[in-house]
């Protein structure tokens, strides 16, 4: 993997890096591993050292019995249960550069693939945080590209941010269509 990632127009004080769900349960050996997830650490750590106004990490932070779990007729095995090792940010992620942590999926009755708000519309506070910091562009990376990274990118566009997904620092379960992302005003870099 190329550790030097070229980002458009450089990075400024109006830009934020959103590191999506780089947690133990999404890594090899975890409850819901994303292929290649662990291989992203070098690229993400390099990105976090750029001159972003904010570096925000999201965490799935589910209560026991969360609606997304198979035991509750949801699509996923139990994962990222609040306070467990599986919910912790993965070792090797340079947390010194993270300025904020957003926890999502905290309500038992609503899933939250997006770092911006859950499926019932409850906000995580990320939009207000970024607006308060004067952020106008967001760059997303992490896992899973086709689930939580994509959902977060879609909500970033709706919240009015110029939105980029950094492909070299993201891993997914299924490939994404670049043309469909452009139709949604999400840029791939």
From TrEMBL:
Pathway: Cofactor biosynthesis; nicotinate biosynthesis; nicotinate from nicotinamide: step 1/1. The keyword Cell cycle does not apply. InterPro entries: Isochorismatase-like_dom, Isochorismatase-like_sf, Isochorismatase_Nicotinamidase. SUPFAM superfamilies: Isochorismatase-like hydrolases. Belongs to the isochorismatase family. Keywords: Hydrolase, Metal-binding, Pyridine nucleotide biosynthesis. Residues 16-175 form the Isochorismatase-like domain. It holds the Pfam family Isochorismatase. It comes from Parasaccharibacter apium. The keyword Hydrolase applies. This is nicotinamidase. Its EC number is 3.5.1.19. It is an enzyme of class 3 (hydrolase).
């Amino acid at each position: 993997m190329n550790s030097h990632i070229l980002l458009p127009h450089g990075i400024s004080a109006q830009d934020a890096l959103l590191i999506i769900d780089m947690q133990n349960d999404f890594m090899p050996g975890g409850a819901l591993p994303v292929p290649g997830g662990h291989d992203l650490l070098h690229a993400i750590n390099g990105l976090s050292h750029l001159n972003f106004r904010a570096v925000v990490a999201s965490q799935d932070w589910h209560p026991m019995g969360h609606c997304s779990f198979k035991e509750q007729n949801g699509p996923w095995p139990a994962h990222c249960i609040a306070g467990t090792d599986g919910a912790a940010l993965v070792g090797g992620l340079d947390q010194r550069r993270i300025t904020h942590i957003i926890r999502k999926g905290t309500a038992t009755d609503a899933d939250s693939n997006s770092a911006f708000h859950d499926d019932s519309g409850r906000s995580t506070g990320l939009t207000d945080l970024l607006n308060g910091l004067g952020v106008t562009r967001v760059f997303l990376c992490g896992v899973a590209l086709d689930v939580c990274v994509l959902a977060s990118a879609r909500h970033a566009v709706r919240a009015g941010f110029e939105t980029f997904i950094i492909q070299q620092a993201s891993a997914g379960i299924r490939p994404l269509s670049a043309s469909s992302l452009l139709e949604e005003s999400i840029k791939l870099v």
